[in-house]
Design goal:
The structure is a single chain. This protein is mainly α and 296 residues long. It has 2 domains: 3-212, Cation efflux protein transmembrane domain (Alpha-lytic protease prodomain-like); 219-294, Cation efflux protein, cytoplasmic domain (Alpha-Beta Plaits). 69% of the residues lie in helices and 9% in strands. The chain contains 9 helices and 3 strands. It has a 3-stranded mixed beta sheet, with helices on one face. Helix 2 packs antiparallel against helix 3, helix 2 runs antiparallel to helix 5 (144-174) and helix 5 runs antiparallel to helix 6. The longest helix has 32 residues, at 3-34. 38% of the residues are buried.
Length: 296
């Protein structure tokens, strides 16, 4: 990853942290004032997002340090480790909120729907703008850390939309013969959102653990690597075979075997094949770590 991309990544993460701090404080204060479970969850989620963004920012700076005695193969694995932490923490927050919603279903509650609805509208606009802006910046400076940040803002935006719609429905209930059931709107919303939001952090945790354990990357990446190796093989006098491929953070590790029919390969031919492979695979948006092995 080039220096300019690294700078952009840090700027995006810093901006995300600043915006998250505002939403976190607003959600916690309003949630306590109107006694709303979902607004408290929204504020808590923003607070957790802030802490996780700061963690990503620290990791982003630390990952760029060169290899040393402690990290002889570099620090690429820190990126999926951070994303795994983010996914696990968000999963815990959602599960905790799910438990609170189940408890609240048996007790009901009392929410000032007018203030809650106003706060929800402001939140929808703010989170929506932040999500779209982060997504736009992500397209210019692609990285797994920024991608995780975009997913966090997407969840926050959808959460705000659900909260606002729910409070509007609660307000309409208060004007109907079913007004006594309006107190259950808040926990029911929290229950529905908890089940929905379980998917995103679970997927974050799953994909990051695959990288930490050096498992095969996505089918899309595997297909592109296969195509690159096949194209390089067509330009080589040797038989070129893909041995292994894995993605760790922003690094793509590719092991390739080359063989010769007469079991004799000139050094010049090996270097030519290596350069061809590097040229083909460097088109992928990762830091390529290429290993070329002589197979018997």
């Amino acid at each position: 990853m080039c220096a300019k991309t690294n700078i952009n990544e840090k700027r995006i993460l810093t901006l995300s942290a600043l915006i998250s701090s505002g939403f976190a404080m607003g959600g916690l204060v309003v949630g306590l004032l109107v006694s709303s479970l979902v607004i408290l969850f929204d504020g808590m989620y923003s607070l957790v997002s802030l802490l996780l963004t700061i963690l990503s920012l620290i990791a982003s700076r630390y990952i760029q340090k060169p290899s040393d005695e402690a990290f002889q193969f570099g620090r690429a694995a820190l990126e999926p480790a951070v994303i795994a932490v983010k996914g696990a923490v968000i999963l815990i927050v959602v599960c905790s909120s799910l438990y609170s919603a189940v408890v609240a279903l048996f007790t009901g509650g009392e929410v000032d729907v007018s203030i809650a609805t106003l706060f929800g509208i402001v939140n929808v606009i703010g989170c929506g703008v932040a999500w779209l802006y982060m997504n736009k910046l992500h397209k210019r400076s692609a990285s797994d850390l920024i991608d995780a940040e975009v997913k966090q803002w997407k969840m926050d935006t959808l959460l705000s939309v659900a909260v606002t719609v729910g409070f509007i429905l609660a307000w309409l209930l208060t004007l109907s013969p079913l007004a006594e059931y309006a107190v259950y709107t808040d926990p029911v919303m929290m229950l529905a959102m908890s089940f929905y939001f379980l998917k995103v952090p679970f997927e974050m945790l799953k994909s990051s653990l695959r990288e930490i354990f050096m498992m095969a990357p996505s089918e899309e990446i595997c297909n592109k690597v296969d195509q690159g190796v096949l194209a390089a093989g067509e330009e080589s006098d040797q038989l070129v075979e893909l041995s292994a491929v894995t993605k760790i953070g922003r690094e793509l590790w590719v092991d390739v075997d080359i063989k010769s029919e007469d079991d004799v390969i000139a050094v010049e031919d090996i270097e030519h094949t290596r350069r061809t492979l590097h040229k083909k695979l460097s088109k992928l948006p990762f830091n390529l770590q290429l290993s070329v092995n002589i197979a018997s």
